[in-house]
Design brief:
About 50% of the residues lie in helices and about 10% in strands. By secondary structure, it is of the alpha/beta class. Helix 1 links the parallel strand 1 and strand 2. Helix 8 runs parallel beside helix 14.
Length: about 325
Amino acid sequence: MSERPKIAVSACLVGQKVRHNGDDAEFRVTSREWSNYLEIMPICPEVGIGLSVPRPKIRLVKTAGRLSLVNPDNGEELTNKMLEYAEIQSDLLSLAGISGFVFKKESASCGLDRVNVYDGNNPTPSQDGRGMFAMVFTSLNPHIPVIDEGRLSDPRQAEHFLARVHFFNEWRKSGENGWSASKIMRFHNENKLFLLSRAPPMKRLLGRLIATRFDEGAHPENVALEYITEAQKGLVTLPKDGRIAHTMERVFGKFSNQLSKAEKQEVVELIHGFRQGILPKSAPLIVLNEYLTRYNLDDKILNRFITSVPLEMS
């Protein structure tokens, strides 16, 4: 399995000229900045179902409560083509080992929310739809983290999405040769600081899920899938900086007695600066990582927290 996590990305976001108007919608974060650290898999569902470039801008249309995907120029129904394509591609992407998906915002095929839906003769659409491909993918793969490029414009949202991607990739690698009860418990233990820093209730809830499901005689493969699905649900909410800073302090406590007074003060000030929003998260993490290396603290629990997002990407 590749060490670099794979993510699927709407093809227009990585510079492919596949949009309805023959243009792209390049988003440099996905097309350039991340390409050194992630394996990018571009996909355009609209081209995938055979639509040309350029083409009419397809729409979601609601008629008598039924949602359809339609070419507004000639009324052609594209619903069944897109549903069939989405089901096949969702399975193929999962089998290919993707650990996340970046969708094109507000697209009738790829938008995760706020997509225009046209109802009857009303020329003003509601903005409560979800792209048809995105709807199928997220329904079939609720355990795979997703986001749209609009949210990636917020550095904190981007960082948290990357953390979810790398968490999922760790899960995939841990179960590469099959899951057992001991593997699940080891994965949960290795990620306990990561979970405490991002979604504190999940550590306890996931531990309870593991114990309950094995008491019920569930197969490890099923428990592992339930585990990551529940974990990703809990990780949807953006974490508070104070919680991450508190976890940094716990890591600091592992070796603080080996530092000089000046070294201790430096770390305390860096963590405080991050907590106050003055410094980026990477500032204290880089220093903490240097001390972990200096004192040979090769502990997977600590490392998973420190490098929940590779420091080069922080």
